[in-house]
């Protein structure tokens, strides 16, 4: 606090009271600091958390760090980066198939669930999600891939990507980003379907000059 409270001097206590009131109006907003034991039961209480040296706001019973330009990535609702280094293929044409993620690159508040197709959000909030898939054609015929997200087992309306391959051994990468509003405990799945079983989501081994290629990636971060 940059100012010192006015001392209780003088014969007229009302004058000191007015000076003290003016001081509080100028400085009261600086007094909100978490010292332990404060309640987050009411939403919208903003304070400074000394333990993480960061401003926080009460939301759904928790004190959530507020984001700003220099915010550390582990201060917020969460983030996660997930990949898979295995080939993935559908077993039936025109049938929704869940994509799995076998490797967690980064995780804080977002994790791979059970089954491993589920990306689980520990905290409610709004999240930016970016998805990629490496497509492979195994024959010289036209074939179509479809990709779309599900939240808690329900397809997201108007969200499908559709792409076709035509040549044998043809490969192509697709990507899409979206923002999802979720509740604590919700899970997201990336689904795909194909019109021909001579297809896969293909992973590639590392080369002497380049790292391995994952078949799929998914990254999520609170916004």
Helix content: under 10%
Strand content: 35-45%
Q: Give the radius of gyration.
A: 26 Å
Counting DSSP E segments of at least 2 residues, the number of strands comes to 17
Structural class: mainly beta
Q: How many angstroms separate the termini?
A: 31 Å
Q: Averaged pLDDT, please?
A: 87
User: How many DSSP helices?
Assistant: 1
Spell the H/E element sequence: HEEEEEEEEEEEEEEEEE
Low-confidence spans: pLDDT under 50, at least 5 residues? 69-75
Identify the overall geometry: elongated
Major beta-sheet overview: 7 strands, antiparallel
Give an account of the 3D structure:
- The strands form three sheets. Strands 6, 8, 9, 11, 12, 13 and 15 form a seven-stranded antiparallel sheet that branches. Strands 5, 7, 10, 14, 16 and 17 form a six-stranded antiparallel sheet that branches.
- The longest helix is centred in the N-terminal third of the chain and has 15 residues, at 13-27.
- The chain is mostly beta strands and 223 residues long.
- The chain is 7% helix and 43% strand.
- It has one helix at 13-27, and strands at residues 33-34, 46-49, 54-59, 62-65, 79-84, 97-98, 103-108, 110-112, 119-121, 125-137, 143-151, 154-155, 161-165, 171-182, 187-194, 199-201, 216-222.
- The model is unreliable at 69-75 (pLDDT under 50).
- It is built from one helix and 17 strands.
